[in-house]
Amino acid sequence: MKIFFLGIFSIIPENMSKINAVITGIGSYTPQYISTNEEISTFVDTSDEWITKRIGIKERRILKPEEGKGVSYLAEKAIEDLRNSKDFDPLEIEAIIFATSTPDYILPNTASLIAYRMGMKNAFGFDLGAACSGSIFALDVGQAYITSGKYKKIMLIAGDVLSTVTDFKDRNTCPIFSDSCSAAIIEATTEDFGIMDSILHSDGNSLEFLHMYGGGSVNPASHESVDQRLHYIHQDGKVVFKRAITEMGNTCAELMKRNHLTTNDIAWVVPHQANIRIINAVADHLEIPINKVTINIEKYGNSSAGTIPLCLREWESQFRKGDKIILTAFGAGFTWGAIYMKWGYDPA
Ligand code: COA
User: What residues are labeled active site?
Assistant: First the structure.
């Protein structure tokens, strides 16, 4: 046995260090228009009191056509915000992974448009569809690219313009959804920081509970698909609610256990912002004090792939190098998961 282990170790060169992938900068953008619960109450039969109590949202940001169009508009603004704190040469970016369910077009992908417009001429890019879990799925893919040694600097973009697929006549969904986008750079490092571990899952046996049936190859756009309101998100809120709590709670617990992390070790939990009651239930399950959980749902609502990086950006000034952070999300698919990372830098 001893000889076997010696044999394995002897093939690793002495000077070879483990490569980690670490976030080195992040920027965000939310549209200027603020839609309040009072405004939502003029569209559907609801109230500020109901939305605040049952969902935890007071207001959300909506991209109005007069401000700009498409998720790429928000992404460009997010990259401008990133540039305020992080100096980088666009030509050094080797890949762009854009997590979104609301791309500018079905094709071409939005990542290619961003690469061209923002001068990242050496980057290849693709969009990644994992709904509200998109940001953590993209982080995991980017981490794998970097730790493989193939790439050193990647831009991750995550965001949605859910207002374009929200039925403002459906009170089950329209109080919840919103728009935002963020952009982060991840880089190779041999320091012990960055993405340490991840657990991701999908369950395709849940289509009926959370979907947008129109616009794809099964129901391409037609008069009928529009009349049937198929181009909007529909959900069975109760089913989504219960699964979100169970899966996010269990996945975080498993991730913490296998990395020997106690609640005291965790500096922050950064959950997807879908419902304040889901967030509270996950925190309770993990026995994490709520002041260690990033919560901004009351201001921004649920912008799908946008919520987690928007929290990272908003809490960036409170993060310290080495902080142990758990990200966790749940969304259509169903898709869900959790990422454990050690934050890579102190506030500027
Ligand atoms: N305003 C007022 N009443 C509403 C309402 C609204 N916006 N939406 C639903 N109701 C009513 C229902 O009609 C129901 O009335 P009834 O008892 O007379 O039938 C009552 O409130 C309770 O409905 P219920 O569906 O049990 O509400 P809920 O407490 O489960 O909250 C959601 C509904 C959608 C807010 C909640 O289920 C949820 O957040 N689910 C997860 C959604 C999610 O995360 N989606 C995105 C995926 S990441």
Answer: 132, 272, 302
